[in-house]
Write a structure and sequence with these properties.
six-stranded parallel β-sheet, alpha/beta
Amino acid sequence: MSARAAKGRAVVIASRLFVPEVSAGAFRLGALARGLRGRGAAVTVVTTTPPAHAPRVPDPIDVDVRRLPVLRDRGGNVRGYVQYASFDAPLLFRMLFRRWDAAVAESPPTTALVVRAAAALRRRRYVYYAADVWTDGVIAMGAAKPVVSLMRAMERAALRGAARILSVSAEVTERLVALGADPRRIATIGNGIDTEVFSPDAVPPEPDERYFVYTGTMSEWQRPDVFVRAFGLIADEFPDLRLRFFGQGAVEGELRTLAERLVPGRVVFGGVVDPSRSAAWIRGAVAALVSIAPGIGYDFARPTKTYAAAACGTPVLFAGAEVGGALVRDAGLGEATAFDPEAVAAAMRRLLAEAVSGESERLRSSRAGWAREHVSLTAVGDRAATAVLDVLSGGDEAAS
């Protein structure tokens, strides 16, 4: 749909996350909102009040953002059945008494089902933004069979009711089809990073310090303890070296305990930082650490952390599942190893040697160039906006 045709059409985005909250999902939806506004659509975002640790800045996008309080866990996350319900329960009423021509529902599937109900009552269409496959996620967490069955039923219902489904990768698309999604309704738009914020121009906060950095979520399916264990194997060889973690997650407490036991005082946890600070720490690192624990249901994932590091020109040290490792190897973004502390430790030694020799710095511009060409979040947002507006023009059955 052209910008002229989209002018005056109203799109509502329903999500528990939105900028300035620091998360990949919030950034994706911010890019989508910008893409829709750039085409002339009127955009309303129905979302939550940001947590205390979110950057205190005005809403950075020229859209109508409606925020209400929501229950969060101790880490400030909307994560867990009760927290999801605190957003989903009032969402139906917020959707029913608002003008919109199309809606976009972000995960979890419970939110999509609320949007599906509102769309049915309003005789409108909705788009489901499938950045993850939640059924695979609950399986990976070892959930009981009834929970897995319930999640599978909800996710299938969310997918089958959507006029269009936005997928972040070919691997996610494959899993969505396996769940019962109509492949003709899936738009594989990719995933990306803000290459204006994450760039080689970011200024390192500690330019003389040598460190590896991990940014973002620390979860069961990433198991970043592999990096702490690997660091413990090389810490005595490099007494000036540190390991830095930024972000939070379900396993942060376990990581702190492990770090204090193996390498006391050498692992720093910096909490949640805004994107510009994250970019600065990534820019100054020997390498950025990324992991996907293999064999637990998330082998298809391509973490945004990889793109953030590449955009800064910093090498990636990826440990784990083959899809993420192949991305790093094929694009020449750094080191990809087995999910094993000794293999990771060996890769750390190689990356430290490359930093000393100057080889890492020599390759910085090529890595950043790859990111600008392949994983620009602006381009992803534009593709997502095109797919959403295509629904308004009657293109809900078109293949993508």
